[in-house]
Amino acid sequence: MSTWFEDAFRPGSEIQGKWNGRVYLVERLLGSGSNGVVALVRRGQMKYALKAGYETVDHQSEINSLHALSRTNTSFRNFLIDVDDMVVQGKEVSFSVMRYIEGMTISDFLHKQGQDWIYVIGSKLLKKLTELHKNGYIFGDLKIENMIVSRYGDVDLIDFGGVTPKGRAIKQLTEVYDRGFWKAGERYAEESYDLFSFAILLLKVLDRKNRFASFPKMLPQNREIELLHAIMKENPPAARLAPFLHKALNSQIATSEEAYQLWTGLVSNKKVSPKSTTMPWLKICFAASVCIFAATLYIYW
Ligand SMILES: Nc1ncnc2c1ncn2[C@@H]1O[C@H](COP(=O)(O)OP(=O)(O)OP(=O)(O)O)[C@@H](O)[C@H]1O
After folding, report:
1. CATH 3.30.200.20 domain range(s) in the chain
2. Residue 28 buriedness (CB in 10 A; 0-12 / 13-18 / 19+)
């Protein structure tokens, strides 16, 4: 017998919301995780990502965060399109419909375009975090799988299941990205929590020796931030970013705005600027991202 999502997400089948009545045509499965199954769907000419939740409580919590963010004057505005229930194999399954983000993982992007793109992607990711943080939220479960990189290094966050209002306990995390795992701080929703995960994400994606594969099995007493220093020594972009990474790993950067300033200072400094054939594009993209960020700050705050 097929599972409920194989039934619901068979390419070409239609999903109709029980309450709002909207009909979505399934194109293909995009992925699945601990909270749900995500499919690429169409309604008219528009493409969307439709997520059907396994656990109503977790899915509901993600929907609540998305609802709140979708109402803000940020790039997350209208990210959430629809929320409804569908009936599959006689059971009600809740689903949410979100903006569809086309792109690839940061690992695949850097593999294709070169590691120097980390400077552009990092600055764009910091801008996303700044928007969230300014609106009183912490992303919580920042990791490679929860972001999509599209053309010119644009960054989108997906999976808002870990989004937590500032001041509360972190509600969803992934071990190696969690500062509690490394005995480097509390699982408390503050900006430095996301900045720690941001530093881990960069190191993980830049590490060519796949050290992170063994970290989850490591005994608690052996989990030392110093283990990550080897990556900073071996990898040229990580070495250039080392002053930033050290501070972020030690929760010495209080806000993402401060992190952005520090990042910009390091990357635009001649000694640390990326050198590669992609440089003109990198410079243009980085300069454009700085201008857009400044304009966003000016308009909204
Ligand atoms: N808005 C979106 N646009 C494009 N693809 C998406 C979108 N949302 C999710 N996906 C795809 O679906 C996959 C699973 O989604 P998601 O990470 O939200 O599920 P999850 O159950 O919350 O996962 P996790 O176990 O990491 O918590 C993602 O890895 C991504 O490939």
Report:
1. 4-99
2. exposed
Catalytic position from the list 141, 156, 159, 178 = 141
Residue from 24, 34, 38 to probe ligand 1 pocket by mutation (most atoms less than 8 Å from CB): 38
- The single residue listed with the structure tokens 């900045």 is 195
Burial of 185 (0-12, 13-18, 19+ CB in 10 A): middle
> In this model, does residue 286 exceed pLDDT 90?
no
User: Which pTM does this prediction carry?
Assistant: 0.87
113-270: CATH topology: Transferase(Phosphotransferase); domain 1 (1.10.510)
Can 207 be counted among the known catalytic residues?
Answer: no
Q: Is any ligand 1 atom within 6 A of the Cβ of residue 41?
A: no
Question: Which residue owns the Cα nearest ligand 1 atom 17?
Answer: 159
**Confidence check: pLDDT of 251 > 80:** yes
- C-beta of 103 in contact with ligand 1 (< 6 A): no
Cα separation, 271 vs 260, in Å, equals 18
**ipTM of the prediction:** 0.93
Summarize pLDDT for 188-227 with one digit per residue, the tens. 999 999 999 999 999 999 998 999 999 999 999 999 999 9
8-25 burial code (b ≥16 CB/10 A, e <16)? bbeeeeebebeeeeeebe
From the CB of 150, is ligand 1 less than 6 Å away? Answer: no
- For residue 122, the model assigns a pLDDT of 98
Q: Which CATH superfamily is domain 4-99 in?
A: Phosphorylase Kinase; domain 1 (3.30.200.20)
Is the model's pLDDT at 291 over the cut of 80? no
Specify the pLDDT at position 20.
96
Residue ranges, CATH 1.10.510.10, the chain: 113-270
Quote the CA–CA distance of 238 and 229 in Å, as a whole number. 9
- What's the average model confidence in pLDDT over 108-127? 96
